[in-house]
Design goal:
21 helices
Length: about 425
């Protein structure tokens, strides 16, 4: 006969044995939905043909120079690879599309002067170089990085959405979000935009959904090697965290200072020409010889460019739509859940990033892909009536970080070394 103590200890084992098949069924449904999502995104990529703009030559040139090529060798190698692998009509534009293309194609010195614009983002050309050493030429390797990152973004979005939606609903929502123009454009281009969005979205999920602030900030710091303008995300999130969570103020300040230091080091190492030259190169005219250029734009010239780039005729429809949705979400969540809500904090940081990025560079909507996806995820979550966990703060009891549960199997989570925590 069991003693009361032994009987009490034996009772919990019964429901756990019954819960095993249920947990396994949930895992199977999630995995099936995830595989279906990857298949649908692969179909999207099938119809999103690569578009090789001039950035291909710039990043490939940096990869060649890091690999030890001289300026003349890098110039010859990059254009030879483009001639052999880029479609003829796109290659013709790369070498004859205008005075800039013609000058840089003809002069290795002019090509070398373009590389500081691209050396500022070393992670992407390093990946291109690594793939080149493995036998994948830079033309195809650059696009495959974007395409794999596109699939990764879809997976992260699915994991985020599955925290408050059924697997089928998370599948449909993630596929719809990844089928918008800005996401498909990032998958088509030989740029680090998709890779940057993947890393930033992962960091935001860690910080706001899982409450792993330190891990998320570390991922954001690494993202500076992909795109230095991700410093705006670091400063916004660190500032918010420092205001709301006393215990994290030192970590937030350290993360912000580290981000500024890494960004400054990248600019020194790359030989950056500065904001005024980059602005002129992007919004006035491309400069074949930026080293000799002296910026001459005045206040009225900058004001006119900002007005031109903000004119509704020059803005995609989704930009205005997402701006309105973001403003509505901020007001709605602040009224319903208060400013300690993680969703309110996330949409506020996203809005701060978008506005600040526009003030620095009033174009390149594809650089804000992570911000668009955040708005979509929070829109679905708000409409579904599920509030994210409140931010821990002075008047709110601190809660343990959420477990990074991807499998739903506690024993496997223990083997992976993940701490269990309260769910969303």
């Amino acid at each position: 006969m069991l003693t009361p103590a032994l009987a009490h200890a034996a009772r919990p084992n019964t429901p756990r044995a019954k819960a095993g098949p249920l947990i396994g069924a949930v895992l199977v449904r999630r995995m099936v939905a995830l595989l279906a999502l990857v298949a649908l995104l692969a179909v999207n990529l099938r119809w999103a043909e690569p578009y090789y703009d001039w950035d291909l030559l710039g990043y490939s040139g940096v990869a060649a120079r890091i690999g030890g090529a001289t300026p003349a060798e890098a110039h010859r190698r990059v254009y030879d690879l483009a001639y052999r692998n880029v479609p003829p009509e796109q290659y013709a534009w790369l070498v004859e599309g205008g005075e800039f293309q013609q000058a840089v194609a003809a002069d290795p010195a002019a090509f070398e002067q373009q590389l500081p614009f691209y050396r500022l983002e070393p992670a992407y050309p390093l990946l291109i170089l690594a793939l080149d050493r493995l036998g994948v030429d830079p033309v195809h390797g650059s696009v495959w990085i974007s395409r794999v990152a596109y699939l990764g973004i879809g997976v992260v979005a699915f994991v985020w959405l599955s925290g408050f939606l059924s697997p089928l609903a998370a599948l449909a929502t993630a596929w719809g979000a990844m089928s918008v123009q800005v996401a498909l454009e990032a998958a088509r281009l030989p740029t680090p935009d998709a890779l940057s969005a993947l890393v930033v979205l992962t960091a935001l999920w860690l910080v706001f959904e899982c409450q792993h602030f330190g891990r998320g900030m570390l991922v954001l710091l690494l993202s500076l090697l992909i795109r230095p303008d991700n410093l705006l995300w670091i400063l916004g999130i660190a500032g918010w965290r420092a205001l709301r969570v006393r215990r994290d103020r030192a970590v937030a300040a350290l993360g912000a200072l580290a981000g500024v230091a890494v960004s400054a080091a990248l600019r020194i190492w790359s030989g950056s020409f500065g904001w005024r030259v980059s602005f002129h190169h992007s919004f006035v005219e491309p400069l074949p010889y930026p080293e000799q250029f002296v910026p001459s734009l005045g206040f009225s010239d900058y004001a006119w460019i900002y007005l031109r780039e903000t004119h509704p005729a020059n803005l995609p429809l989704f930009a205005a739509l997402f701006a309105l949705l973001g403003a509505w979400l901020l007001v709605s969540r602040a009224r319903r859940f208060g400013w300690r809500d993680a969703g309110t904090a996330l949409i506020a940081c996203t809005g701060a990033y978008a506005v600040t990025h526009w003030l620095v560079f009033p174009n390149d909507d594809r650089l804000r892909l992570a911000a668009y996806l955040v708005v979509l995820i929070l829109l679905v979550r708000t409409l579904a009536g599920a509030a994210t966990r409140r931010m821990p703060g002075d008047a709110v009891r601190f809660s343990a970080p959420r477990s990074l549960r991807l499998t739903g199997l506690p024993r496997l989570e223990a083997l992976l070394g993940r701490r269990a925590g309260p769910g969303a």
